[in-house]
Write a structure and sequence with these properties.
- The chain has about 325 residues and is α/β, with parallel strands linked by helices.
- It has three domains: about 5-95, no CATH class; about 100-200, Butyryl-CoA Dehydrogenase, subunit A, domain 2 (Beta Barrel); about 200-325.
- The protein is built from ten helices and seven strands.
- Strands 1, 2, 3, 4, 5, 6 and 7 form a seven-stranded mixed β-sheet that branches.
- Helix 3 runs antiparallel to helix 7 and helix 4 runs antiparallel to helix 5.
């Protein structure tokens, strides 16, 4: 792959432009082939390798959102006959455009019924989105809104136009290479072709689970990077035999999780629904991995190696709901 080497060459590139600078190389390396019939196994193996690089976790997060949410919506809309979706999708596959999807809103609590974004019967789009990954500097937004005429939740594909929208960058302490923003617009005129032929609600869970699967692949690469850093700075040589064995066990945990992700990805390629496979092992492995390293080296030391660990310690309300369901299934 060329993108890891290019990532190193762009070490001084500002966070907000790094992903765009890398796009042609990511496309050449085949990261977007999964959006034109390629394999998720291949995509996740590449994602894990990229995440082993410095600043690779943030780029992996940007790819995760671009492929699993925006890319997948465009791919399905293209299959349903949308020419506009087909054109934007092709730009993404060629590494020539960034598309960000906005779902979350203040107070929505993970439920579509709480969304306030609307397409009026007159054809105006009103939205206020609280968190769009890849949104700052994106070429296109996909806004999930309720179509009052059809009474369904639909994706609306619009070019980003700062003159008609309010866009505010969100700064995060971790993975800054995946830029985020808030965005809103009132009475934005849209065309019928901007409303993609897809009922978002029918696919929302699968999109999210696909994202979590990709995030797990990113974690595997990130974990290897932490262990490599500890090895390179001589920390591992100073350990007792007992602690060396525990670090080796943590390495084995990463390898086992990776094998599970490749296996699940293979079934995903065959059309198996991801809800049947959840949980994928991210939360459990990350908990054991960080707890083990923190005990041996101290949390301050481990955290100093990369602030990106915080990405894998976030609590997502939807994940909690899915976990409760999985626990209930287990104890039936």
């Amino acid at each position: 792959m060329k993108s890891p080497e290019k990532l190193q060459q762009l070490s001084s590139q500002p966070d907000e432009t790094l992903y765009r600078e890398l796009l042609p190389y990511l496309a050449e390396d085949g990261f977007f082939r999964v959006l034109e019939g390629g394999s998720f196994v291949e995509f996740h193996k590449k994602l894990s390798l990229l995440s082993e690089e410095e600043r690779g976790t943030g780029i992996g997060l940007a790819l995760m959102a671009q492929v699993n949410i925006s890319g997948r919506i465009l791919e399905m809309a293209k299959q349903a006959g949308s020419q506009k979706a087909a054109e934007v999708l092709q730009k993404i596959i060629e590494g020539k455009a960034i598309c960000s999807t906005g779902v979350t809103e203040p107070g929505w609590k993970g439920r579509l019924k709480n969304l306030q974004s609307r397409i009026s019967e007159a054809g105006d789009l009103n939205f206020q989105k609280g968190f769009l990954t890849n949104g700052y500097g994106a070429d296109y937004f996909i806004i999930i809104a309720k179509d009052e005429k059809r009474q369904t939740y639909v994706p609306v594909l619009i070019p980003v136009d700062s003159s008609q929208m309010s866009i505010e960058r969100i700064h995060t302490e971790f993975t800054p290479e995946a830029t985020h923003c808030r965005a809103r617009a009132d009475k934005l005129k849209i065309l019928e072709e901007d409303i993609l032929p897809l009922e978002y609600e029918a696919h929302a869970l699968e999109y999210r689970l696909s994202e979590i699967l990709s995030l797990t692949a990113i974690f595997c690469g990130f974990g290897k990077k932490l262990l490599r850093k500890l090895k390179e700075n001589g920390e591992l040589k100073l350990l007792s035999e007992e602690d060396k064995r525990e670090v080796f066990y943590l390495h084995e945990h990463l390898q086992n999780l990776e094998a599970r992700i490749w296996d699940i990805s293979g079934r995903k390629d065959k059309g198996v629904k991801m809800e049947e496979e959840f949980p994928f092992g991210l939360e459990a492995t990350a908990s054991v991995f960080f707890s083990g390293l923190d005990r041996i080296f101290g949390k301050e030391k481990v955290s100093s190696l990369s602030k990106d660990r915080s990405l894998f310690e976030l609590k997502d309300p939807l994940n909690e709901i899915l976990y409760r369901k999985a626990i209930l299934r287990f104890f039936r």
